[in-house]
Design brief:
Mean pLDDT: 90
Radius of gyration: 12 Å
Shape: globular
Strand content: 15-25%
Helix content: 10-25%
Distance between the termini: 21 Å
Largest sheet: 2 strands, antiparallel
Strand order of the largest sheet: 1-2
Number of strands: 2
Low-confidence stretches: none
Number of domains: 1
Number of helices: 1
Amino acid sequence: MVLVGHNPGMEQLISGLCGRTPDDGVAVMPTAALAHVTVDISRWNQLRWGIGELRLLVPPKIIRA
């Protein structure tokens, strides 16, 4: 699934899913950045803060159009 959003909401979502806070700086999301977060769930109602793993964070300057 792909989620598209705006900050600070995306940074808060990624940080929360990975058990961090936005102040940790783990998910600094400049405009047009991409993040890959995995969660080990089989149903949406199993989604909780802290169960995700940030696999990849790609800044826009290395994405080719």
